[in-house]
Amino acid sequence: MRAKPHALAFLALLAVAGCAGSPGGQPQAGDTRFVAGDGKVTVFPAADRKQAPAVEGTTLDGGKVSLAAHKGKVVVLNFWASWCGPCRAEAPVLKDIYAKTKAGGVEFVGIDFKDRQADALAFERTEQPGYPSIFDQPGKVALSFQGTVPPAAIPSTLVIDEQGRVAARALGAVKYNDLLKAVTQVRDE
User: With 50 as the cut, is the pLDDT of residue 25 above it?
Assistant: First the structure.
């Protein structure tokens, strides 16, 4: 039986638009483990901010990175995976905002979530973000933010203020102007 062209187009759209998984156990669009977001950035009032958990791990290239090493700086944490279409779409946004804000003392750290290391390294070679990513295949870093970020919300972005508190959050692919505004606001506080 031959597939109809509109059915093939629909399947292709699903693979590109959502976090289409692969047989390796990654969450898939429609899977109850996957939480979609609209990318809207919410900045929390300083009095309502919660302390970020300790974040540390081995980077995709074998180095070490921790949130504690960036104490006193604004840090943007981005949860991503190579198999996630919206993650791929937002990668240039994150790269550009990092380049614009790093001279002002803002650090970026990626959290590669539920991914295969070879696929994640290929993604980094293609995107060249300029900042390190922790290889979090089991999702431990993501789980440590439970209550702030649903463990299966990918992509997700957090802005950590200079006091180590979660100052802003976006669930879903971030929009350039929204993230730049939030990062700048938190940095200038």
Answer: no
